[in-house]
Structure formats: structure tokens, C-alpha cells
Specification:
With about 375 residues, this protein is an all-alpha fold. The protein has one domain: MFS general substrate transporter like domains (Growth Hormone, Chain: A, Up-down Bundle). The chain contains 18 helices and no strands.
């Protein structure tokens, strides 16, 4: 572990964590601004999906971009683009322009995360992978968790609030400047073409679905959960904090869950997290207005849902090496973007037509799909072992 936690690693995860703060603030602030302007949840869902569309569009080009301009420079460009696109939202209320700016933000975020996650997985070995990936995920989520809290403080500053969020991203640049070498091995990226996605995809259905579920969970928690809570009578100042409770559960428990996965086996812990989320989500409509019941439930849901994603990244590193790992990381990124793009559109439209509880229904269906895929993978592995 000590050999892995070098200066370059710490610089990268801290830079990504600062990006998490900006992201955690921008999504709920966008939803709040749209609601204040009189727009419904369907419009909020469309703007959230626009960001995911940008991420999905850039996925096929991430490796080539990193190889062409260098991984560290690609991350720096991503941070600057995030800052500019977010700050520009301060100077217009045109929904089309907002959509374009969210697309640019999505592309920048996907470039940054794909490079960072592939590099972290390459650093770890199987005996420490759960903890190493958990450190990376925890640092991002810790700062993302503070985003909605920040929104609750700056929401009234309508003349500068988006500019402030944009400036947050720039805080990552000094840390990035301390990285001594490119964080992504060039040889692996160069030979990625020899491991086609059609060969890699059948080996990771649960990982793809698990990533997609958490992408949806994370996006909806930041964008539509406050509106869901307000529809159930929760005050707006409290509603914007609920996502922070979920993210706190994610942050606090990822390293312990990563340690548990290293000790008990990734497959067992991964499936257990899916069952916990599947059992807990249907309780949310009954406890959302009671903070003594709702907040502990949100903490547990955040921890379990976050571990589904973290352990999906761990599994990529366990199953794939070299070029195949790059391909797997790209597929994980594509799954994240696709779920973030389509999920808010579906959830926002269903909430508009069927009521706010449709939000819970969408999440239940998605986590059930992950559990089914994980059970299928386990049975297939047992059959191969016989």
C-alpha cells in the first residue's frame, strides 16, 4: 500500500476530489435554478441528461486524446473546460445554451474520470485493489458530498452562484501541476485495439449494469432527490441536504467495504450490496418525511450503492490486464454516460406523469437488474469450474 500511495497518486486523487466538489454543487444548483424559473422535473431531467450525452460522445476518443496530448494535459484541459462551461451558465438563462454547456461539462468529466480510473486500477494488485480503488472513490465522493451543502449556502446569491461553482474547479490545477509523469501507461492504450469490446463485453455484464445503476443513483440523488423530498413535504433547505447524507454513507464506508472485499472476496460483498439496496429503496417513500428514519436509510443506501460501483471497478482490474483493461474501462465509462443520459430523462418524465414515487421505481428496477446479472455471473462461474 505504501508504494502505491506516492506523490503522483495523491495529487491525482486530490485533483479529482476537487472536481467532485464542483460537480456535487453544480448538479443540484442547476436543478434548483430551473425549478425557481418555473420549469418542471422533465426539463431538469433533460439538462442532466445533456451532461451525460457529452460524456457518452467522448468515450470512443478518450484513449486517443490521452495518447495525443498526454494524460496530465488532458486532465488539465478537462478541468479548465469544466470551469469555463459552468461559469458561463451565470450569464444566460437560455435553455439551449445551458444544454450545450452541460454537454461540454459531461465530455470533460468523462475524459478526466476514464484516465484516472484506468491508472488507479493499473497501480493496484489483487490483494489491495479493493482498498486502493476505495481510496480513489472516497476522495472524490467526500468532496462531492459537500457540494449540496455549498448550494444551501450560495443558492440565494443568484448573481454569482454559477461563477463560484466554476471557480471551484480551478482549485484542482495547482495539485495537477505537481504530478511528475503521465498517469496512464501509453503501451497499454496503444495496444487496446487488440482487445475488441465485443470480446470484453460478455465477460462483464454485472459490472456494466452495476456501473449504470450507480451512475443513475448518483445523478438522480443530486438532481431529482431534492425535488422528490420537497414533493413529500420536506422543506427546500433540508431537501437539498438529503443527497449529502447519501454521499456521506458512500464516502464513509467505501474503504471499510473495500477492505471487506479484499478479505471475504469481491463477488460476495458485491452481491450483498445489491441485495441491501434492493431491500432498502422501497422503504424510502414511507420514511422520507421523518428525518430519524430517513437519514439512516439514506446513509445505508449511499454506502451500499457506492460499493456496487467501486467493486465494479475492482472487478475490472481483477479480470482484465493491459489493453483489455483499457477496453473494460471505456465500457464502464460508456455505461455510466448512457445511464446518466437516459435515466434522468425517463425518471423526470415518469415523475411528471405518474408522481414523484416513480423515482424510486426506476432505481428499484435498475438495482434488480444488477442483482440478476451478478447471480447469473456467479452461476456461470460455478458451471465453468465443474
Amino acid at each position: 500500500m505504501k508504494a502505491i500511495l506516492n506523490r503522483d497518486f495523491l495529487a491525482l486523487i486530490l485533483s479529482v476530489a476537487v472536481v467532485g466538489l464542483g460537480t456535487g454543487a453544480t448538479l443540484p444548483l442547476t436543478a434548483l435554478a430551473l425549478t425557481e424559473a418555473g420549469h418542471g422535473t422533465n426539463v431538469v431531467g433533460m439538462l442532466t441528461a445533456a451532461q451525460a450525452l457529452g460524456g457518452l460522445a467522448i468515450v470512443p476518443f478518450v484513449t486517443a486524446l490521452a495518447r495525443h496530448i498526454g494524460s496530465r494535459r488532458a486532465i488539465v484541459v478537462s478541468v479548465v473546460l469544466l470551469a469555463a462551461a459552468t461559469a458561463l451558465m451565470q450569464f444566460t438563462s437560455n435553455l439551449i445554451l445551458w444544454g450545450v454547456l452541460r454537454v461540454l461539462c459531461g465530455a470533460a468529466l468523462m475524459l478526466l474520470f476514464t484516465i484516472g480510473e484506468a491508472w488507479v486500477n493499473q497501480l493496484a494488485d489483487d490483494s489491495t485493489r479493493g482498498r486502493v480503488v476505495a481510496i480513489y472513490a472516497t476522495n472524490f465522493t467526500l468532496f462531492q458530498m459537500a457540494g449540496p451543502v455549498l448550494v444551501s449556502q450560495i443558492a440565494g446569491a443568484t448573481s454569482i452562484r454559477f461563477a463560484l461553482c466554476g471557480a471551484l474547479f480551478l482549485l484542482a490545477l495547482p495539485t495537477l501541476a505537481t504530478i511528475r509523469r503521465a498517469p496512464l501507461a501509453g503501451d497499454d492504450a496503444h495496444h487496446a485495439q487488440h482487445d475488441h469490446w465485443l470480446a470484453v463485453l460478455p465477460r462483464m455484464p454485472a459490472l456494466i449494469i452495476g456501473t449504470g445503476f450507480f451512475a443513475l443513483f448518483d445523478t438522480l440523488a443530486l438532481s431529482l432527490l431534492p425535488l422528490y423530498a420537497m414533493d413529500h413535504g420536506v422543506a427546500s433547505a433540508t431537501a437539498v441536504l438529503l443527497a449529502s447524507i447519501m454521499l456521506f454513507g458512500d464516502t464513509a464506508m467505501q474503504f471499510p467495504i473495500g477492505w471487506l472485499a479484499d478479505k471475504l472476496g469481491r463477488e460476495r460483498v458485491h452481491l450483498g450490496a445489491g441485495w441491501i439496496v434492493l431491500a432498502g429503496l422501497p422503504l424510502l417513500p414511507f420514511v422520507i418525511a421523518n428525518p430519524w428514519l430517513c437519514w439512516p436509510l439514506l446513509f445505508v443506501l449511499g454506502a451500499a450503492a457506492g460499493s456496487i460501483y467501486t467493486l465494479s471497478l475492482v472487478a475490472c482490474g481483477q479480470r482484465f490486464r493491459g489493453a483489455a483493461l483499457v477496453t473494460a474501462s471505456s465500457l464502464v465509462s460508456a455505461s455510466w454516460s448512457a445511464a446518466s443520459f437516459g435515466g434522468p430523462l425517463v425518471a423526470g418524465a415518469l415523475m411528471e406523469q405518474l408522481g414523484s414515487n416513480a423515482l424510486v421505481g426506476v432505481l428499484v428496477v435498475c438495482v434488480a437488474a444488477f442483482v440478476a446479472a451478478a447471480l447469473w455471473e456467479r452461476r456461470a462461474a460455478l458451471q465453468r469450474a465443474v
